[in-house]
Design a protein that fits this description.
alpha/beta; Lysin; 508 residues; Rossmann fold; 38% helix; 16 helices; Elongation Factor Tu (Ef-tu), domain 3; six-stranded antiparallel barrel; 17 strands
């Protein structure tokens, strides 16, 4: 990704400008507006009594914006281009069109802005067409049950809070404790699946966006990924429209029977951008100075995630929105809004993160409202008691810190819980296959790891794939292929786990 913005020869803005320039000459009635005031990316315009909400405006010097609020005497427009050339008195005209985003398979493997302008220095983007960024969410009759798993490759999520294709799962936590890493690892894990991935960056620092995109494109499947970026220096209009543009790009694939995943990083900054625009356009502020429609803005966006019915092609759109909290305050306005809109939340805890538990998922506050209905059967059976065992361990550990001599039963639970915690501590950008997750959960649940010292648990995890491929190849193929493990294959699989655990215990 480069800091330069190149305009493709067939961009939507150029097409709109061409339509204006090629209009037939001759006497005609025309509505024009005049710029009365400009500042902070918002323009106050008089005139244009018939302008529609969200209609695209073109200014005399080629700059574009869109109508954000309509008053009786004025229109407030938000710029999607830098506004240095606009001055009071300039002419503004409506284009008769709404905001649109490029769609098509030509976007895959590219880093672009919401208008389709390349940010990766690879030249113009081969887009198929431009679709409106706003569209209704699929109706109830057009949806199907969420039953197919969306594997993240992260054991603590797939085993305890399984996600399904078509689900909206919020990732929430304080600043810089691994929220983006969790989402990026999920995208990386799709290199072995058929999901198209769209990474949307809103108001982020260039260095942060670069790290995330480099990880996705170097370790994932770049030919099935697209990054849509409106950074901190982008005009407010671009930052506001970028999540809607990312959804439009993903819906192109969903509507063709394919499966898409959208990561929105993050909606807290989008809410702040919406608040800034609202205050500048004189909309009444509400709780925490956010306008009253902020809930509707995010609801109409996230409701577009869905698993479509067979009659509609059977495609799916899964969404992982990210939100930032302040000192773990989940009861703040935007976090409570997003929690109520989504189908569950993965809560990251700053204390766990600083203690070295990564990903720092709080299993007490996290939940998936779809959960086991989408989980692969082999993993569901292998992790049946994992969450309960781990929760009991955390409670027992808290009480035994005050001293006392726990009995043998309590010591056994503490031993197993400590090994479960070590298993859930997973390196970044190293997603696990389904067979590895089943093996780790089954080994922990069966107590195979109890005799191992804690320092041997990472070695057990790192060497598990090779051990299973050597001793239980058919079982691995069955799990990765169908998500089921039964019969003789299950016996061979568990025997391979026991041998691997014994070998790790014998190594010096």
């Amino acid at each position: 990704m480069t800091g330069e913005t190149e305009t493709p020869s067939a961009s939507w803005l150029e097409q709109a400008q061409a339509r204006v320039d090629q209009a037939a000459l001759g006497p005609r009635a025309e509505e024009i507006g005049r710029v009365e005031q400009i500042g902070d990316g918002v323009v106050k315009i008089s005139g244009l009594p018939n302008l529609r909400l969200d209609e695209v405006l073109r200014f005399d010097k080629g700059t574009f914006g869109f109508a954000h609020s309509l008053d009786r005497d004025f229109v407030h427009a938000v710029l999607i281009d830098p506004g240095e050339t606009i001055e009071a008195g300039d002419i503004a005209r409506g284009t008769g069109d709404v905001l649109r985003a490029p769609v098509g398979p030509g976007l895959l493997g590219r880093v672009i802005d919401p208008l389709g302008r390349p940010l990766d220095g690879k030249g113009p983007v081969a887009m198929e067409r431009f679709d409106p960024i706003e569209r209704p969410a699929p109706a109830i009759a057009e949806r199907d049950y969420v039953t197919e798993p969306a594997q993240t490759g992260i054991l603590v999520i797939d085993a305890l809070f399984a996600l399904g294709r078509g689900q909206r799962e919020l990732i929430i936590g304080d600043r810089a404790i691994g929220k983006t890493t969790l989402a990026v690892d999920t995208i990386i894990n799709q290199k072995t699946s058929d999901m198209i991935c769209v990474y949307v960056a809103i108001g982020q620092k260039t260095s942060s966006v670069r790290r995330a995109i480099d990880a996705i494109f170097s370790q994932g499947a770049p030919e099935r990924c697209v990054a849509v970026v409106a950074g901190a220096a982008a005009p407010p209009g671009l930052q506001w429209m970028v999540p809607f543009a990312g959804f439009a790009m993903a819906e192109y694939f969903r509507d063709r029977g394919q499966h898409a995943l959208v990561v929105v990083d993050d909606l807290t900054k989008h809410a702040a951008c919406h608040r800034e625009i609202a205050l500048l356009t004189r909309q009444p502020p509400g709780r925490e100075a956010y306008p009253g429609d902020i809930f509707y803005v995010h609801a109409r966006l996230l409701e577009r995630a869905a698993k479509l019915s067979r009659e509609k092609g059977g495609g799916s759109l899964t969404v992982l929105p990210i939100a930032e909290t302040d000192v773990g305050n989940l009861s703040a306005y935007i976090p409570t809004n997003l929690i109520s809109i989504t189908d569950g939340q993965i809560v990251l805890d700053a204390r766990l993160f600083h203690e070295g538990q990564k990903p720092a998922v709080d299993i007490g506050l996290s939940v998936s409202r779809v959960g086991g209905k989408t989980q692969a059967r082999a993993l569901r059976e292998a992790s049946a008691s994992l969450r309960l065992d781990y929760a009991q361990f955390l409670e027992l550990e808290m009480f035994t810190r005050f001293g006392g001599m726990p009995d043998a039963r309590v010591r056994g639970r503490l031993t197993r819980g400590a090994r479960i915690r070590a298993l859930l501590n997973q390196p970044q950008h190293a997603p696990l296959s389904l067979a590895e997750e089943v093996g780790l959960a089954a080994a922990a649940q069966a107590g195979l790891l109890d005799p191992l010292p804690l320092e041997k648990i990472p070695a057990f995890r790192d060497g598990l794939r090779a051990a299973l491929m050597r001793d239980a190849t058919e079982a691995v193929a069955e799990i990765d292929g169908s998500g089921v493990l039964s019969g003789a294959a299950a016996e061979i699989f568990h025997a391979a786990l026991r041998r691997h655990a014994q070998a790790c215990g014998e190594k010096p």
